[in-house]
Each structure stands twice: as C-alpha cells, then as structure tokens.
Design goal:
The chain is α/β, with parallel strands linked by helices and 517 residues long. It has 20 helices and 16 strands.
Length: 517
C-alpha cells in the first residue's frame, strides 16, 4: 500500500477499490472509501472509523513500528468528518513486488517473511469460533459466495456472459466443489491440529517491504474477522499465489516450502494447490469489481488469475491410480517411479499381503496358484485392506497409487467406489510386456516382495477379467537392463494420464527406477 520516500516526490496518492492513501513526507495517511462492496461495508463514517482503529490494532501484530495511530479529520466547525490510518511511509523501491519485477534477489527476505508468518501463527489466537472458519463447509461457503458475487457483477454488465467465460466460473466451480466434497476429514484434522488461526488474511507482495533490518508486513484484512480466521497454510498461500502471478512460480514454491518447514506443517500438496487456487479466485473477484468500475486493465487480470485458479485446482486434484498387469510386466517399477515423481502414497498388494500374514515384505512365501497366502480369502482380505487404507488417505487429500494385478472386475469396481466416495479422480493403467521378457524379469528378482513365477502368471492370465477401462502401457521397449525414468515412454504416458495439464503442476524431483532383466 505504501509508496517510496527518499527519492520519490514529497507528496503522492495511491488508490484501490476500497481506500485512498495520501503520501506526505515520511508519513502515509489511509482513507477508507465510503463504499459497500458486499464483502465489506464502509458506507457510514462510524464504520470507517471502526475499520481504521481495527486496522491499526491488527497490523501492529506484524509491523508495530509502521502503524502509528488513527487521526481524526475535523471540519472548521469542529465537527468530526473522517478518520485516517497514520503510517510510517515505506520506501517503494524496497517493495517485494517491485523487487521481483526487477529480478532482484529476494530469497533471503522472503524466507524471513515465511518465518515471521509462522511465528505469528504460532502465537495467534485460536478458539471454536476461529476454528469454525477453517472447516471444509466454511471454505466451501466462501467459494460459493465468490461465485455468486461474480455472477451478480456480470448481471450488471452488458457482456455478462463474456465476463463469466473469462473468469472460468463454470469449470472452477465444478473442480472446487469436487475437491471439497470428499475432504471433510482433512479439514477436521487441520482444526484438531490447531492449524486454524487469527492470521493476516490478505498477504500480498505489494504490502511487504524488504528493509535492511528485516521485512515489514502491512495491510492485513480488518473488515471481517471471519475472513482473517483461517488455516495458516491458506494465509501463506495468498502470498504464494501473488508470487506466481508476478511470474515467480519457483519463489512461490520455495516460500510455501519455507512456511511449512517453519510451521512444522505436513499438509498434502493437494491442499497447498487448493488454497493457492482459492486465493487466486479471490483476486479474480477483486479484479472483476475493478472491471465493473471501469478499470480497462482489470479484464486481462481476470483472465490471468482465472487461468491460475484452474491450473492449481487441476494440479491439486486428488487421484486414485490403479497400476495392474501380469507378473513381470513392470507394474511395481512403474508404480514406484510415478509415486516418486508425483509425491503420491504407494500401496503394494505384495507388501500388504505379507504384512497381513505377519511376514517381512522380502520373506519368500511361495505357494501353488490359489493356495497359502494366495488363496482367494487372503486375496480378498488383501484388496480390502488396500482399499481401506486408500480411502482414508484420499479423504486426507493424499493421492494414492495401488500396485496390484487388478485382474478381477469386482476389485476394480470396489476401487471405483472408493474413488467416488473420496471425491478422487480414478486412473487405471495396465502394464504389458512380451512373455519371454516378463519371465526373464521374474527369474532375476532378488529380495522382492512378489512370489509369482511363470506358472502362477499363466494361471492368472487364464482367469483374468477383461479390463476395457484401462490405459495399456507396454514396458517391453525399455530394453535390458533398462530403466524407467521420466523419458521412458510408459512413464510419459502414465504422467499424461494422471496429470494431463503439463509437468509444471508437479513439484517433485525425479529419479530412475531399474527394470530387472
């Protein structure tokens, strides 16, 4: 909000949709506009005075030496006519957004901001009223309020349909609702862990100044406590979104990583992306308001932020991936490569089968087809446990890869039901390889959880159900010894199926996985 001192003009003015800031010397004076915008109401003088005092009180938590107090403006008659927030003027050339646009090094100050935010959150007020605003239903209500407000704005414009199309309201609404539908346990766990706090609520790069003695964080949200009562990760996501908007997605990722490190926050990537999407759409709404007020540049900002919203909603989609096929077709190697690349939880039928039998994963337990721990009852128990664990993880926002043969139609139907209940996308991948190569791979296994051999594989092939919904991946072209890294065709095709919107949505490193034989 503040402008440069020193080299800048002695006086100046800056305006937003809800306030005007006057710069005089080394001070800044913030005036609330007499507007009612639905999500805030400054239409009365009393409301504006209360907002000024509340803004000063709340922002002193983050920058006590910047917010100096509240000034009263009186008419010549002595009558009170307005109130202003009085601030120490910040040097605009040290504004974080300006430094980013100038490509100046800001990693150090940004890391300090992440630490300061985590420290403030650790000391912030908590309680039942605050926690309620971090619930799944509260977030869904805020999404819906934003959708409704943009539709109301559009209804007042001659090109309403165009605004709704530019804002991507339809697809954004569908994706946001789908994520939230299955995630109540995730949000409940966040509340139980004390993650919902009285935070900043409006953390933008324009309002952060990187001074020599440390950053100053200004302009927290003061007009509605409920919008400032939020998950700490949601608070941090606002700045991450803004860094992404400014063309610095790597800094956005690093900032989020620093915050979660300092806050000891184990949030799943899906929640990080969802909060980034939510914050981007909040800015879509603000830009739409400015467009309705005649700002000629706001429409382009609506388009940019709407695209960002969709990008993060798609990246944060919770997914259940079934990777199946006959023994020796490379399904376990592919599953490991994809889990590492995408940051998914990997569940293996071979390992869980041994666990249920009280055996170490690598302990041999060979048996004829349909006997021992491979009897039908053990197989049903194994798949039941796989899907039980997968369902619990999906509800907590974790994408899951299940490595199993998936030869039975009933097991796949049960997996589809788990995905539906957990509001997760379902991706089905079937690995194949030439029989001779599959047999060679089985014979060269050492210390592997699988006990399958070519005889078992032949019995499985004879009893398998058709799998028309699966994408078939031929792993035979990887050669010998071969590897499955991101350049391998099965991995590329699998990544396209799981994340069809481009590699920029995946924040995890890669490493090669070896195919035996």
């Amino acid at each position: 909000m503040l402008e440069p001192a020193a080299s800048e003009p002695f006086a100046g003015v800056s305006e937003t949709h809800s306030s005007v800031v006057f710069f005089v010397g080394d001070h800044a004076y913030k005036l609330k506009k007499p507007v009612s915008l639905g999500f805030l109401d400054f239409s009365s003088q009393a409301a504006r005075e209360a907002a000024c005092r509340r803004e000063t009180e709340l922002n002193r938590r983050f920058a006590p030496d910047v917010y100096l107090g509240v000034a009263e403006v009186r008419a010549p008659s002595g009558e009170s006519c307005e109130h202003l927030v009085v601030m120490r003027r910040m040097p605009g050339n040290r504004r974080l957004s300006s430094l980013i646009r100038a490509r100046a090094p800001v990693a150090g100050p940004l890391r300090q901001v992440a630490r300061a935010l985590a420290v403030q959150h650790a000391a912030a007020a908590r309680g039942p009223q605050i926690s309620e605003q971090g619930s799944r239903d509260a977030l869904r209500s805020r999404w819906r309020a934003s959708f409704a407000q943009i539709r109301r704005i559009g209804a007042r414009l001659p090109d309403a349909a165009e605004l709704l199309e530019v804002a991507e309201v339809g697809p954004t609404e569908r994706l946001a609702e789908w994520f939230l539908a299955g995630r109540a346990p995730l949000f409940n766990a966040r509340i139980d862990d004390g993650r919902v706090v009285d935070g900043h609520g409006d953390l933008l790069a324009d309002d952060i100044f990187c001074l020599d003695d440390g950053p100053r964080i200004l302009d927290c949200l003061e007009f509605d406590d409920r919008l400032r009562w939020l998950d700490g990760l949601d608070d941090a996501a606002f700045l991450a979104m803004d860094l992404d908007r400014l063309g610095a997605p790597e800094l956005a990722e690093r900032f989020t990583g620093w915050y979660t490190e300092f806050a000891a926050d184990p949030a799943p990537p899906s929640l990080r992306h969802h909060y980034l999407a939510y914050r981007a759409f909040v800015r879509v709404k603000v830009a739409a308001i400015r467009a309705a007020q005649g700002d000629l540049y706001a429409a382009a900002e609506v388009r940019q932020l709407a695209a960002m919203t969709l990008r993060h909603l798609r990246a944060g989609a919770v997914t259940l991936v079934l990777i199946g096929g006959m023994p020796g077709t490379g399904k376990s190697v592919l599953a490991g490569a994809l889990a590492d690349r995408l940051g998914c939880t990997l569940l293996s039928s071979d390992r869980i089968r041994k666990e249920l039998a009280g055996l170490p994963p690598e302990a041999p337990a060979p048996a004829p087809f349909g006997a021992g721990i491979y009897a039908t009852s053990w197989t049903e128990r194994t798949y039941g446990e796989l899907l039980h664990r997968a369902g619990a993880l999906l509800e907590l926002g974790e994408s899951v890869i299940i490595d199993a043969s998936w030869i039975a139609r009933g097991h796949r139907a049960a997996a589809a039901a788990v995905a539906e209940k957990g509001a997760a996308d379902l991706v089905q991948l079937r690995c194949t390889a030439p029989p001779a190569l599959a047999a060679q791979r089985m014979s060269s296994r050492r210390g592997d959880a699988s006990d399958a051999d070519p005889t078992i594989a032949a019995h499985m092939a004879a009893t398998k159900d058709p799998w028309p919904d699966a994408i078939t991946l031929d792993t035979g072209g990887t050669g010998s010894p071969g590897s499955l890294d991101e350049s391998a065709d099965p991995v590329r095709r699998a990544l396209d199926a799981i994340r069809p919107y481009g590699p920029e949505h995946v924040w995890r490193p890669t490493r090669p996985y070896m195919l035996p034989g």
